[in-house]
């Protein structure tokens, strides 16, 4: 116990003393415009490989494509046998969503500057602030030669923002990294890691029409776009699906609703999404020319699925609603597919990380559910307990003027370091 307390104090002191290094690492990561699409991770990956090399850590590169690199770097522990080893995976992604119209930003989205207590730039919250913390904490453990009893592996993936198929699932399905637990540095509240996510059901449908001269519509021709609009209206009823919520998640849903109601900046009514199917009409593509009656229209829908509803049942209900609206089509799945999933609070990695948040912050911490989806579902598919915790200004994620509070970046780095110490143990 004495050794553990000494290492804990040493790590906290080192992070306080080297805050500028941590922030410069975060700035450097943001300055790589690793937008996805197109998803070219080579430059930022090479930078990370070199950074880890300075601390004596080797990195294995697994290329899913010529431009998308998965990185695995493991800090080996001192356990007596593999069967007794705990193996903790720290996971982060290098890709960010496109910055969009640069003229609408108040600053260069790839500046990586610190102003007024915030780290600025695309990815500051999602999730280069957290990624920097994971890398920095792991390097610190390596440089100080902390005698961990288990393995700590950095898994850094290139493809999360467009579905993630070439990232975490690609690596886990091939057994390229092993873990008894995992932490993903996705953005969260400073006191509230996310321990579960809603399911996803992305689908699209195509409506056929009859072309004609635009000057004669609606007398001549049948507009596929008008028909699709009726389908869009009908699909709003997916919200009315009643979930059969399992007993074991009812309490965490109650906690998460309360958190959403009281969270600073939360949209009024957002707590309702935890027990409803949400429906977002993401894209509409139809027609060939403004003066031609549209002969085809394709609509893509992003639906998120609560506990107690199967995503396949959502697909089935969507087909029924379209048919009831008089639209003969069949929905087709694409992208994210899967049911709601979680890691219970009693799992050691959850209780350990929550305890470290409380210790570092001096405030009560607890896990909540997330209404979005993430790579966490892939870890759970492989029976690896996982949760998410990272610095963020949540209102700026995927939006203009993305930023993250500097104090949260530092706090998260401390939590990552102490959680590895707590979960893996010290020789």
TrEMBL record:
Assigned EC number: 3.5.1.18
Chemical reaction(s) catalysed: N-succinyl-(2S,6S)-2,6-diaminopimelate + H2O = (2S,6S)-2,6-diaminopimelate + succinate
PROSITE patterns: ARGE_DAPE_CPG2_2
Pathway: Amino-acid biosynthesis; L-lysine biosynthesis via DAP pathway; LL-2,6-diaminopimelate from (S)-tetrahydrodipicolinate (succinylase route): step 3/3
Alphabetized InterPro entries for the sequence: ArgE/DapE (IPR010182), ArgE/DapE_CS (IPR001261), Bact_exopeptidase_dim_dom (IPR036264), Peptidase_M20 (IPR002933), Peptidase_M20_dimer (IPR011650), Peptidase_M20A (IPR050072)
UniProt keywords, alphabetically: Cobalt, Hydrolase, Metal-binding, Zinc
Keyword check for Metal-binding: yes
Pfam families associated with the record: M20_dimer (PF07687), Peptidase_M20 (PF01546)
Location of the Peptidase M20 dimerisation domain: 195-326
Top EC class for this record: hydrolase
Gene3D superfamilies: 3.30.70.360, Zn peptidases
UniProt KW Metal-binding keyword: yes
Listed cofactors: Zn(2+); Co(2+)
NCBIfam families assigned: DapE-ArgE
Family statement: Belongs to the peptidase M20A family.
The protein, known as: Probable succinyl-diaminopimelate desuccinylase
Native source organism of the sequence: Saccharibacillus endophyticus
């Amino acid at each position: 116990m004495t050794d553990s307390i000494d290492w804990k104090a040493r790590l906290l002191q080192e992070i306080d003393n080297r805050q500028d290094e941590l922030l410069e690492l975060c700035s450097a990561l943001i300055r790589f415009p690793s937008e996805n699409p197109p998803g070219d991770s080579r430059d930022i990956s090479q930078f990370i490989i070199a950074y880890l090399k300075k601390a004596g850590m080797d990195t294995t590169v697994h290329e899913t494509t010529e431009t998308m690199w998965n990185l695995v770097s493991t800090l080996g522990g001192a356990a007596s046998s593999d069967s007794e080893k705990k193996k903790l995976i720290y996971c982060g992604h290098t890709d960010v969503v496109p910055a969009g119209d640069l003229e609408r930003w108040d600053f260069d989205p790839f500046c990586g500057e610190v102003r007024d207590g915030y780290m600025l730039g695309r990815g500051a919250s999602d999730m280069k602030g957290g990624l920097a913390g994971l890398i920095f904490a792991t390097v610190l453990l390596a440089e100080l030669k902390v005698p961990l009893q288990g393995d700590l592996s950095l898994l850094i993936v290139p493809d999360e923002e467009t579905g993630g198929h070439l990232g975490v699932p690609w690596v886990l399905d091939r057994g390229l990294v092993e873990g008894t637990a995992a932490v993903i540095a996705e953005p969260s509240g400073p006191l509230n890691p996310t321990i579960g996510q809603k399911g996803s059901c992305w689908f699209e449908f195509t409506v056929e029409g009859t072309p004609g001269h635009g000057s004669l519509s609606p007398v001549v021709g049948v507009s596929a776009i008008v028909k699709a609009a009726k389908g869009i209206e009908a699909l709003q009823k997916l919200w009315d699906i009643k979930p059969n919520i399992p007993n074991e998640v009812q309490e965490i849903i109650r906690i998460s609703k309360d958190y959403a109601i009281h969270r600073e900046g939360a949209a009024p009514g957002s707590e309702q999404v935890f027990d409803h199917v949400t429906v977002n009409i993401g894209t509409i593509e139809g027609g060939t020319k403004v003066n031609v009656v549209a002969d085809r229209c394709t609509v893509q829908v992003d639906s998120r699925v609560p506990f107690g509803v199967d995503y396949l049942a959502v697909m089935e209900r969507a087909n029924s609603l379209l048919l009831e609206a008089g639209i003969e089509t069949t929905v087709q799945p694409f992208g994210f597919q899967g049911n709601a999933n979680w890691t219970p609070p009693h799992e050691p990695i959850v209780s350990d990380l929550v305890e470290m948040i409380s210790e570092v912050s001096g405030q009560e911490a607890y896990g909540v559910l997330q209404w979005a989806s993430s790579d966490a579902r892939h870890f759970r598919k492989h029976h690896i307990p996982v949760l998410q915790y990272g610095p963020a200004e949540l209102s700026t994620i995927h939006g203009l003027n993305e930023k993250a509070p500097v104090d949260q970046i530092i706090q998260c780095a401390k939590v990552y370091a102490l959680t590895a110490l707590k979960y893996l143990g010290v020789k």
